[in-house]
Amino acid sequence: MPQGQDSQGSNIVLVALGGNAPSRAGSPRATVEAAIFTLREIFSDFKASRLYQTPAFPAGAGPDFVNAGAAFRSDLDATEILELLHGVEAEFGRERVARWGQRTLDLDLIACGGAVLPDRATFQHWSNLPLEAQKAATPDRLILPHPRLADRAFVLVPLAELAPDWSHPVTGQTIAQMLDARPRAERDSVTTLT
Questions:
Q1: How far apart, in Å, are the Cα atoms of 15 and each of 70, 130, 133, 153?
Q2: Is 156 or 97 the better-scoring residue by pLDDT?
Q3: Over the range 169-182, which residues count as b (16 or more CB within 10 Å of their CB) and which as e?
Q4: Is residue 13 helix, strand or coil?
Q5: Residue 1: what pLDDT?
Q6: What does the domain layout of the chain look like in residue ranges?
Q7: Which residues pair with residue 14 across a beta bridge?
Q8: Alpha carbon 78 to chain centroid distance?
Q9: Pair type for strands 52-54 and 106-112
Q10: Residues 24-44, mean pLDDT to the nearest whole number
Q11: Is this structure's pTM higher than 0.70?
Q12: What CA–CA distance (Å, rounded) separates 179 from 45?
């Protein structure tokens, strides 16, 4: 079976959800829960992680986030999936005005099967970009897998519930291995909401 596909040939899609500002659905927690409900209506075989509370990234960028992960199958290409995700964000009042600021809902397409988009060299460029450069630069196209995936415990912790054995098509590391490589303090800062 090809990397990132199930036995029927559908792509296994990984998405990170988060928010730290109220929306029409209510609190950030209510917003993420409502977004999960909406995504479940759109995508087949949809699974969501528990909800987590995490400090804003980078530190001091705003109130704590409510985060979750999602995994589902889709025959759509990554651009079509991203359009649907952006449509759901808009439903919950997401405005793309400030990078790494407060937001009602953030739906990040983390991976779509074993796709490396737009190509390996572009992925490597964005993956190796220093933090200060990331703050100033934004890709003008979809980069997959998400180039900062291995650096973010707030994405890895929820996804480890759903797809611990998914392996990165460039590095070969699984979600579980990437999570284990994060510093303990970072992993411990991602706490389960009750």
A1: 5, 23, 24, 14
A2: 156
A3: beeebbbbbbbeeb
A4: strand
A5: 28
A6: 11-192
A7: 71, 111
A8: 13
A9: unpaired
A10: 97
A11: yes
A12: 24
